[in-house]
């Protein structure tokens, strides 16, 4: 019952108010999840953490990996981000309310990089491999912006900015919005696709206390 109530609250905060029931989904270890049935709309899958991890949980994990590595005999992954990187990341997180304007949540693709954007035989856009969620629209925009779009895509960004009345600072905040995705790549695939360099470049202005 607690998980159902919590997930209903999450959906409500995301602007989804037509939920009839939420059926809990089992099998996960950390997050609460469920399938929400809606009135007159397709069901949605919702997943969220009821309790945020402790601030030092990942630092402790990294220190533990170092200790195991120094003992020898156990293969352990290298920490992708050092102490200075993690401190800079914490500073950036504290400043997010000032760096990112308040926007309403909307339905997003969730993994809108260039390889997931195709075209039909008659030239219409076609999107594949979604990770759909209700979040900030610029999450999708930043994903396209940060994954080497072709020069022809410049017109797309110009029209998008015009139609959505983006402010003049939107380009400057794209690396910050995309930081979540780069961190996810580091966590899942190690330092593939230069994600580590991208993260460190984004964190560079936050290495010194403002």
TrEMBL record:
It holds the Pfam family Fructosamin_kin. The lineage of its organism: Bacteria, Bacillati, Actinomycetota, Actinomycetes, Micromonosporales. InterPro entries: Fructo-/Ketosamine-3-kinase (IPR016477), Kinase-like_dom_sf (IPR011009). It comes from Phytohabitans suffuscus. Coiled coil: none annotated. This is Aminoglycoside phosphotransferase domain-containing protein. Gene3D superfamilies: 1.20.1270.240, Transferase(Phosphotransferase) domain 1. It comes from the Bacteria.
